[in-house]
Design a protein that fits this description.
7-stranded parallel beta sheet; Rossmann fold; alpha/beta
């Protein structure tokens, strides 16, 4: 039985991927940040570890504990969060906080597994986003981390081509998860929107999206299982693709950035 460690298994993509991969015969080590989520995963029968991606000691302890359980064949870096807000309103601490989790912690965790993967073979699947391909208003902090993750993964894929370690990117578009709801505490901590020159825009757009969510799905939204199926292919295929698009907007963004001039991409971004 092969083993995969999946980060960010409290809900959404990570939780669905954990169930999906276990259903396909994998042993899943599910990581969560909050104690109540750890207990919930254990109650579901998963091997579970605490992981705080923004804490170096937590990252090191998680990797050490996972490898102590036995060989690990794959790592799915899914854990991440968002800080919505205009870029001009993002203080330095906000960017530091989100990069610590979405990029630095993810990279650090990967490095802890690389010696084991070099010796035994392994897959590293990094969950990026359509926002790693195209930037849109109010998502600047998250966009920046995903663009960085894309670049880092592309270089790692090339550099590690002479090893038995394979790097894969998965780029979901709108997926039915709690990421918007989970972003509210980060927004309230970091964004002083009332003092912003864009306060009126916040009231008309972002605040309604955060605090008055529509009961309707976003256009083109898919369930987390759509991502889990791509994760399964990336882990089980003898020749995994370098990147996997999920949802129509990702295909549009991927094609658009290759074919359209920057002004055209900006026009679409302003209307997203």
């Amino acid at each position: 039985m092969k083993t995969v460690l999946i980060t960010g298994c409290s809900s959404g993509i990570g939780l669905d991927a954990a169930h999906h991969m276990r259903g396909r015969g994998w042993r899943v080590i599910a990581t969560c940040r909050r104690p109540e989520d750890i207990e919930a995963r254990r109650a579901e029968g998963f091997d579970t570890l605490h992981l705080e991606l923004g804490d170096e000691a937590s990252v090191a302890a998680c990797a050490q504990a996972a490898l102590a359980m036995g060989p690990v064949d794959a790592l799915v870096n899914n854990g991440a969060f968002a800080i919505p807000g205009a870029v001009e309103d993002l203080p330095r601490g906000a960017l530091r906080s989100i990069f610590e989790a979405n990029l630095f912690g993810t990279h650090d965790l990967t490095r802890h597994f690389l010696p084991h993967f070099r010796e035994n073979g392994g897959r590293v699947v990094n969950i990026s986003s359509v926002l790693g391909l195209a930037g849109i208003p109010w998502r600047g902090a998250y966009v920046a981390t995903k663009f960085a993750l894309e670049g880092l993964t592309d270089v790692m894929r090339v550099e590690m081509a002479d090893t038995p370690v394979r790097f894969v990117l998965i780029e979901p578009g709108p997926i039915g998860t709690r990421i918007r709801l989970n972003s509210i505490p980060h927004f309230e901590r970091w964004i002083d929107w009332q003092a912003s020159p864009r306060a009126g825009q916040y009231r008309r757009t972002l605040l309604k999206r955060l605090y008055e969510p529509s009961a309707k799905k976003d256009r083109f939204e898919l369930p987390p299982r759509a991502v889990s199926e791509k994760i399964a292919h990336a882990l089980e295929s003898r020749t995994p693709r370098p990147r996997y698009y999920v949802t129509t907007p990702t295909y549009i963004a991927g094609i658009g950035r290759r074919l359209l001039p920057t002004r055209a991409l900006d026009w679409f971004a302003r209307r997203s």
